[in-house]
Design a protein that fits this description.
By secondary structure, the chain is mainly alpha-helical. It has helices spanning 5-20, 26-33, 37-49, 65-87, 92-102, 108-121; strands at 53-55, 61-63.
Length: 125
């Protein structure tokens, strides 16, 4: 399923917020990402149509199995890339910002090779 960068950012935000609380609302997502309520509502509608999120009976946003799988992959990319950049001397904010941009475009092949190299070299990431 093709998902644009902004959709991936929403999935990652929902994943991170759901690790902190089981009660993720649209307003929480908007505050986390710095987006307006109408933007969040539109994006959540698109993600719901694609089968990545559902709204439970209490109105809380939940990731579907497909949504959680995709969000975990994005979050892993962000974490691995951020830690790699920090390990080579990049400050934490820049490392995180750069990882956020790269995580949406790096191919699975390159990311998997990067992870294998990190594991082989035993970087402490």
């Amino acid at each position: 399923m093709s998902l644009q960068e902004s959709g991936e950012m929403y999935l990652e935000a929902i994943f991170v917020l759901s690790k902190e609380s089981n009660s993720v609302r649209g307003i929480d997502i908007g505050e986390y990402l710095g987006y307006t309520k109408p933007s969040v509502s539109r994006a959540l509608g698109l993600l719901r149509d694609e089968g990545f999120v559902i709204k439970d009976e209490d109105g809380f946003i939940k990731l579907t199995e497909a949504g959680e799988s995709r969000a975990k992959r994005i979050y892993e990319r962000h974490t691995v890339l951020t830690n790699l950049f920090i390990s080579i001397g990049v400050d934490e904010k820049t490392a995180s910002d750069d990882a956020c941009r790269i995580e949406h475009y790096i191919s699975d092949t390159t990311f998997d090779a990067l992870k294998a190299h990190i594991n082989k070299e035993k970087f402490n990431l």
